[in-house]
Amino acid sequence: MWRWVRGSSVTLVVAAAAIIVQSHAHADELRVKTRNGDRTAIVLPAGRGPAPTVIVLHGAFSSAAWTARHYGFAEAAAARGFAAVFPQGLRGCWNDGRNPFPWRANDVAFLKVLAGELMAEGVADPTRIYLAGVSNGGMMAMRMLCEASDLFAGAGTIIANMPMAIGAKCQPPRPMPIVMFNGSADTWVPYRGGGVGFLNLGGYVWGTQQTADFIAHANRCGAEPAMSDVSIDAMSITRFAWTGCDRRANVTLYRVNGGRHEVYGSMNVFPTTRGGSYRHVVSAAETIMATFANE
């Protein structure tokens, strides 16, 4: 049974059907579809009434469905009373301002509309909408930080750096807290910055440390981050925490020492990193969602 609820520019379709996320077998599945580019999103509501909400952006050439099933955000959000939203990028990608893709979707506008409709339909608490993203999705979240941070309460990124072209003109409307996970041995989105992917065809990004320093400076944080290490056997993670920021917009970077281009703590879509060497050390989704919940 389908129910159509019309908004100004988005149609919400509510289906009483088995959810695609295995741990949400008894929940309803909601899909958000725009007429501009046939855009969709999977929405897992928290229950009755507006709730804190996380919008999770998939990686390049991935999907909303895969991200909802495998990366742990759906479960971590539900455990904390959050709604979780998984939009689908046009042709499996996001226009984060970095890539020379022939299609130039206005994803900033799309995500603004999506956030507005989630508020209008009573899914999201307007004061607590968060962004999270993986790789290309994480870089799209950084673009939103630069161009629409007034809509969001915080962001979490995994294996993503600031796109060079966006960072060069980035003027965040207001400070926004951010949690970053990056692997020091990531050759796809290099920790030290530079070209992305095979033959640099994915454009260019800042280094991870430069990205975190820039956001901390924009948020008017303390000059130097506090550092702490977590070590298990030969595996280690270094945490950099900038505090004392405006609007409590703290910046935290988890550098996974020796970590590659993988979603830490979950199944990975990338064949060269399948197996997740850091699966039992840290869960990026759990850590990001715990930070949002404690805001």
Outline the structure in words.
A twelve-stranded mixed sheet has the order 1-2-3-4-6-5-7-8-9-14-13-12, with helices on both faces. It has a two-stranded antiparallel ribbon with strand order 10-11. It is built from seven helices and 14 strands. The chain has helices at residues 64-70, 73-79, 107-120, 136-148, 164-167, 208-218, 284-293, and strands spanning 2-6, 10-15, 29-34, 40-44, 51-57, 83-87, 124-134, 154-158, 178-183, 194-195, 204-205, 226-232, 235-242, 251-257. The chain is globular. The chain is α/β, with parallel strands linked by helices.
Q: Please compute the radius of gyration using only Cα atoms.
A: 18 Å
Percentage of residues in DSSP E strands: 25-35%
Based on the structure given, which CATH architecture is correct?
3-Layer(aba) Sandwich
Low-confidence stretches: 1-28, 269-276
State the share of residues found in helices, binned by percent. 10-25%
Q: What is the global morphology? A: globular
CATH topology descriptor: Rossmann fold
| Sheet with the most strands, sense and barrel status | 12 strands, mixed
| Total separate domains | 1
Question: What is the arithmetic mean of pLDDT?
Answer: 84
Total strand segments: 14
What's the total helix number?
7
The CATH fourth-level homologous superfamily: Alpha/Beta hydrolase fold, catalytic domain
Structural class: alpha/beta
Q: Numbering strands along the chain, what is their spatial order in the largest sheet? A: 1-2-3-4-6-5-7-8-9-14-13-12
Head-to-tail CA distance between termini: 38 Å
**What sequence of helices (H) and strands (E) makes up the elements?**
EEEEEHHEHEHEHEEEHEEEH
CATH level 1 class label: Alpha Beta
